[in-house]
Please model this.
Amino acid sequence: MTHNNPYNLIPLQPTGRNETNTANTYSPEDMITIYEQQFLTEVPEDKLTEFLPFLKAFYDIDNHTLDVSAIIFDAIADSCIIYNHKVKAGRYEILEGLVKEDIEADASEVESESAEEEQVQAYTLECKRTFFINDIEMPYHFNLFIHGDSYSTLTKRDSLLEKMYWFVSDSFDEQLLDNSDATESLESINEQLASLGIREMDLTTIHELVDYIEDSLIDDAMADAVNKLLDEAE
Model:
């Protein structure tokens, strides 16, 4: 392995050689590290074409090894790579207890629903999910509205992740994608990311990130905890 390491790649100990003796083999955990560095290493634009061959030479691996590392990452890693950012969903917190909400049904709903359905109680619940971008902890607060078997969420507007959510949501709702105000908001978001040591994001990356957040907001463990609270309230 070469000692020249201008990209500060993490040195790893191979487990051996492949069957054809053309490349090193590595443990699954180290394969994940190699895969992450392929995307997360900051590379100057004029060095982009040189980086991948350097990474392969540094670890003495081939294209097949990179393909396998991607499969292992998808199978066992607890995070995802969104362009040049490593994103992970962390713990959830239920910040307060269930709050009963009164819902008034209109006349047509009252006529069409059974008496039992009319008595379904609605609740709100203040929640928080922690996310990590490149291992930097970022909070995401939201209000969970529960009515019968359905639920919806309302995101706060305070933390950076929350602002990013509303940036995407407002872009769709108000068709601001080509509006100069949206560009200014994007610049503001990237200024805040930079202050945390996180690389800037373009529109596509932010949209992918918000999709990931929405998909990860309520996992099985949180759903079980919420259901337990509902059972105790009845």
Notes: The chain has a mean pLDDT of 89. The radius of gyration is 24 Å.
